[in-house]
Amino acid sequence: MAKKQRSPEEASADRASIALLEYACEMEVDTCFSRSDAITPCPIGADGRCCKNCAMGPCRLVGKTERGVCGATIETVAARNFARAVAVGSSAHSDHGRDLAYTLLDAAEGHATDYGVRDPFKLKEVAEYLGVKADGRPLDEVARDVALAALAEFGKPQGEILNLKRAPARRQQIWKEQGIAPRSIDREIVEILHRTHIGNDQDAEHLLDQTLRCALGDGWGGSMLATDLSDVLFGTPAPVVTEANLGVLSEDQVNVIIHGHEPTLSEMIVAAAQDPELIEYAKSKGATGINLSGICCTANETLMRQGVPLAGNFLQQELAILTGAVEAMVVDIQCIFQGLVPVADKFHTALITTSPKVKITGATHVQFEEDRALEIAKDIIRMAIDRFPERGETRIPDIRSNMVPGFSHEYIDYALGGLYRGSLRPLNDAIIAGRIRGVVANIGCNNTRVRHDELHNYVVTEFIKNDVLVVETGCGAIASAKMGYMTPETALELAGPGLREVCETVGIPPVLHMGSCVDNSRILTVLSQMATEGGLGEDISDIPAVGMAPEWMSEKALSIATYCVASGAYVILGGNSGPVSGCDEVLRLMSDGWEKKIGGRLEFIEEGEEIVRRALAHIDKKRAALGLAEYDPTKWGRSGDRRMPELLSLPLEKRIEAVYGTAGK
Ligand code: BF8
Q1: ω before 58 within 30° of 0 (cis)?
Q2: Is the dihedral of CA 3, 4, 7, 13 positive or negative?
Q3: Which ligand 1 atom is at minimum distance from the Cα of 560?
Q4: 56 alpha carbon – ligand 1 mean position (Å)
Q5: Is 92 touching ligand 1 by the criterion CB < 6 Å?
Q6: How many CB atoms lie within 10 A of CB 620?
Q7: I need a surface site. Which of 79, 172, 225, 636 has the fewest CB within 10 A?
Q8: C-beta of residue 138 within 8 angstroms of C-beta of residue 147
């Protein structure tokens, strides 16, 4: 029986996407949504019960088949599959970090003159973490030594990853006691590949220990370096005002979309798009200018630092081209659909691959080289401009939302304490008092198997209503941006009374955009600072906080989830069934087992209501364990911007009564 195709409204919760999906149906253009409807996921693979690790298989451990040909049990198979997925995710984030180290090295040695150190303060801070002397030395020398020290983290023969010492002391002790402190980034990934070869590690718990260690090498190693070095090269983010959703595309300008993950080329494209000569060239072709926007985490990188608008998240990449208004989609690495090629072929859009690591059959490859960065970026913009006269009918949905991104941990410190006394103390105090019930980090992807954006939107709405501060990265952050949740005004409308008071006082939205997926390392830093600030225990596992990726789909998301758990967090992966659902013992090891061993736990929960219920229960449990007051929203909401007009409209006597209660009479 043919599978039923979902209606656009069933497939997506995003209005701009629904409009374009209707057009895709009319035009009979295939998208990830229609392909997803046509393909039933293999239930055996989905649950982690299929072993493909040798040519005696694949062995499907279903029904009466309890062991694979080699004798591997379901516990071994599920744990090995999970370990391999985490190794791949970790390698993707970390290789991205490595490339940034090479860019910094090239810049410092004068081989990549379009780049330089844009944040010398961050360079000094990173130098300290990596044991590089900074004081009294020329900037380029420090930058070179920082780049070399960063590169050494990937394959050094002895010691441990240096950034581990940025974690709370108690957490470092747990890693030592459990033997899961990563030694070098690449080594832990390679060791997973080795251990999961046929005939090696065949004990689920032992495999999962190495998975924790490998993931920590991502979070505190590769990803943290990617964030740090991006800040050094391109600037540490601070709030900017911009917009999100496909309505940011322009009817009369050349539209260039940057998509993927690395800021290296996209930062040059931002510069090239402002080149007066190229703007004139665009005008000579009938456009009024050049309009840049982004998809996925390249978008998040340039959004955070340059305010480049967001065209959309992961599942909107094909839909952006369907607007007919995109002259070029420029992609680098990760999360790029091969399905873009046939969609772009139906329009005038140039699909341009740029990374030496990524070619896509049918796309135009313009290889990016750091030593000619701006020149290549200009060539790409020129290619886009040349497509403008070929543009046909357009259908840009008139849908976009205002947003304020740019919440690096440095800026959060500054917002809460000012330049000379930057500190997370006010955040800790707000949690201790109960104005803020706790913190949720909502991160990760979209997944065609669940309604696009729906779970992100649902959980975020519920959390801010319940006075939970939400921090976000990746495609989850883009979902919230499109909902308009990332403006301070939203706090007035949606946040609970305590959270609203805090947001109004500090002037921040209740949902903070903290960057791309490698920038989950910023969240690790905030959690570490909260733990060491005092009043919320002594470890990340003590903080009333939860991490989640309700619409996750990528192996990177599994690595992030695992390093957050290894750092002490309770993490919920939502949406579809978990990658180890076929094995109760592995599910137990990741939840109760990991909680006992390292203080964090991983759970797979499908329904949004249950995700929210368990997250709030965890936050309240942690509050109780810290001896904090029980969460009580009725205590708050007597101050703030919304309250003022209300109070001012009352006669004096009623106003006094409203502020002081009847005792004021
Ligand atoms: O790294 S959230 S879909 S774009 S994997 Fe990909 Fe997932 Fe989006 Fe950013 Ni992260």
Answers
A1: yes
A2: negative
A3: 10
A4: 34
A5: no
A6: 16
A7: 172
A8: no
